[in-house]
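Q: A reviewer asked whether we had any structural model of the full assembly, not just the individual parts. We don't, so I'm hoping you can provide one. Inputs are below.
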Amino acid sequence: MIPAAIVFVYLAVVVYIGVFAFRKARGKEEVEDYFLASRSLGPFVFLMSLFGTNMTAFAILGSSGHAFNNGIVTYGLMASSSGLVIPLTIFLIGTRVWALGKRFGFITPVQLFRDRWECSHIGTAIFAVQAVLLLPYVIIGVMGGGTTLNVVSGGVVPFWLGGAVVALVVMSYVFFGGMRGTAWVNTFQTVLFLVFGTVAVAVIGWGMGGFRSAAEGLLASPASSWLLTRERVPPYYFFSYTFIPLSAIAFPHITIFCLTARKMGQFAKTVIFYPVCIMAIWLPCVFLGVMANRAQDVPQIKAKVEARRTLAQQGKQMTPEQRDVLREKADADDVLLLLLQRYAPLWLAGLLGAGIMAAVMATDSQILALSTMFTEDVLTHYGGKERFGEHAQVQMGRGFVVILTALAYVIALQAPESIFSLAIQYAFSGFAALSPLLVAALFWRGSTRWGALASTVWVAFAVAAVAVFQAAVPAPAPGPPLVVSRLFGLDALARTAGGTAVFGFMPVVPMVLVSALLMVVVSALTPRPSAATIERYFPASRTR
Amino acid sequence: MRRALLVLAVGALYVLHQDVWFWRTARPLVFGFVPVGLFYHACFSVAASLLMWLLVREAWPAHLEEEAERGARPRRRD
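A: Here is a predicted structure for the entire assembly that you could use as a starting point for your response.
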């Protein structure tokens, strides 16, 4: 129970930071202060918090779990591609969003879209799709919290209680501290995880008798040598993953966070250091996830390896339900925590557990973003800003924080999907396909509200279609995909062990391309916004 | 010209992400334990950081900051 006690102390510190931020903001019951920290964040907090916001349970627990079952490919799939695409989008899009927010007072991306394209209800449609896609992200955080506390306490704290504790803690500091509290907590958590992550690698490596022997051991066996290569991953699939990081800037919490910087110069350090920050967290997580395959003296890890092996060897003869049971057993989201339990001393396991908890709790920004969106994009937009006043808007925002957290917790208790697949299949692909909206709004004078609507409807349809398809066609055993439809001699639509393939690509590729195409074609056929609006966004005096 | 070179650099790095040459091999193990495919992508992350530094230095959109600071911010049109 010592590690669990340390984690609980950590949670208390996090709540205190939120309350401290609340005290600092006392007397300033203003919308921009609660939702955007008065657009005043400095360079260090901006970098650490923006980065920490992206490092969720998916990044930490999901990445090591994915690496455990898929090998080193995990880093290339998600980390190095993100290290290029995310800072690039922050550089190109984030800076422009910040400048427009400063000029026109936007608090949410939908406010920008409404103003840019002179629309109201179409903005509401965009809001609805964003909100539905963001909720799974919040659920991931609660699930990750439940898993972490359960494992760190050696099973004493059940999943439902762990999830409830994390949900309550996050709700408390978001409720009181708003964006300032969230940013400070994220900064504290990111620093904590970077420090303890380094310690974790050293301690686990030492405990395993050195990584050199572990790597050689994995290579010596044909059953595990493939984990150190990418031989089982099709190149199209690998390429598809470079589209996923487009989601980052389209996530409302990231777009909103871009509005909190005091000066645009704060983006510079963030853009430059983002790739190495990703490396600092993902490289150890992925590496440890792969090396965990050698830790067969841990009974739970041995059981996972055996489940994976059985699935690969006998999966074809099994029913879909039997395969699902084995997939559940092979799921490795807790593998990093199991390694800590096995190789770290009790007190250190607690500190490292707190570090992991830090990353897991990055869900706070999503809760705040959803609350900001509900308050600003729906209630204030339709109810009237003057009618409510600033104080009432802040109180409404706080009310939404409570409702959303409770909703996420209830769903987290019911959801059977693993953290990783839930995130990738719904939220990430959907937001990646919404990124053409931002690009069109910021860079293309000719874009129109009808183009935006066409892209948004397509995204909603495509996400739902993928979900229905995967529910209707059970995942096959590991190996060749189950081809459902062929076109021009090619596999047009196939169900793979991990999801869906469209002409060999992940669905995110056609989703993004069709979304961009619809934006272009429909915009070209429909009337542009007024010349005055276009002049405000693309001033003729601009020289660059 | 400078802008074209930067776009080219971004495109080149994007292509280099698809490193088919280390697809099926784990050796050499760098430092004795890091598979070469993983080491390559760690180096890719460092290269991305350097490219971002170049972009910030050579193509920083300073005009946006000037526009934002110059324009006395009206409240948004709700």
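A: Points you may want to mention in the reply: Confidence is low (pLDDT under 50) at residues 74-78 of chain B. Chain B touches chain A through 47 residues (CB under 8 Å).
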